[in-house]
Amino acid sequence: MTTSLNPTIANKQSNILPFLPTGNFYFSYGIQAFKKRRFDAAVKWLKKAIELSPDEPLYPCQLSIIYTEVGSYHAANQLLSEVVDSYGEEYSDCYYLMANNYAHLGLLSDAKKYADIYMEQAGDGDFEEAASQLIEMLNSLEEEEPEDEYAFDDEDELIIHQETAFYHLENEEWEKALTILHEMMQLFPEFTLAKHQYAYALFHSGNQDEAIELEKQWIVADAKDIHSYVNLAAFYLANGQKELAFEHIDPLRNVYPMHDQQKLAIAETLARAGYYQESVDRFRGLKNKLVVGRKGYYKWFSIASYQTGKPSRALNLWEKGCKQFPHLSEEVGPWEYQ
């Protein structure tokens, strides 16, 4: 026995139009979330808008502003560079936004370069006053600290590579990180942090034995290299080899390095090992803006704070970390960490 649809119902159903969200629909949601400072939601909606309307430059521009707000300056400039490459002078405001991001990263020559381009192209644009103030500040810094032109350019190039590597590492894009770190090892052989980051990415990409072997070779060659101890401790802890891990953790407890990246590495390692109060003391001594604000800073400082009886500080750090690194919210929170 067959049944047929009532003609009246069929006619009504045929008049129903399916709702197909557009890029503008998701963009509006992203703007609302941004105004409420719900940055992780704003990023999600704007990425959907870009996916549906890849030829609309306004959407990546707005996403770049959110990245700037949460301190992801390199990610912001990647988006802005793509807009500039495609639309050029039509979106001249991008040049000021890029200049602002470079200034935050400490890349002063690049900041001035893009601020000057903005002033040349935008005329009386929306950011004219802000760009003028930025250029004035950069000029005063140049007068106070004259640099050798070529050395300064090399330093800028190193920092750009370093920020790119950090971006991929913190987003767990291991293959991309390995590519940029391998290039850094060729271009800047004296920048030893790159090889340790390479080993870290290698370990997490599934090549654990190779990563451990590299660090064992390097620690024999230089027994004072803090990052070899840090990496081997992290690798052995991840593999459940606690006895081997603590052989490399214990020496770090009496080391107080000068460089902020090394300070951060030791603070994270002490937190991983359960030396929470010692870890908190190390984290509280960090001030450098290129270190404070890393994913590891928020995660492990939050865990160490919670474990030492500071739940409010732990929650505040965790929330800030999740806003800047949405993937962090998928990990175990400090209140659940064992």
Automatic annotation (TrEMBL):
* Keyword Repeat part of the UniProt annotation: yes
Question: By what name is this protein known?
Answer: Tetratricopeptide repeat protein
Any keyword Repeat? yes
Membrane-spanning residues: none
Q: What PANTHER family does the record point to?
A: TETRATRICOPEPTIDE REPEAT PROTEIN 6, UDP-N-ACETYLGLUCOSAMINE--PEPTIDE N-ACETYLGLUCOSAMINYLTRANSFERASE SPINDLY-RELATED
| TPR repeat boundaries on the chain | 23-56
UniProt keywords (A-Z) are: Repeat, TPR repeat
Q: Gene3D superfamilies of this UniProt entry? A: Tetratricopeptide repeat domain
Alphabetized SUPFAM superfamilies for the sequence: TPR-like
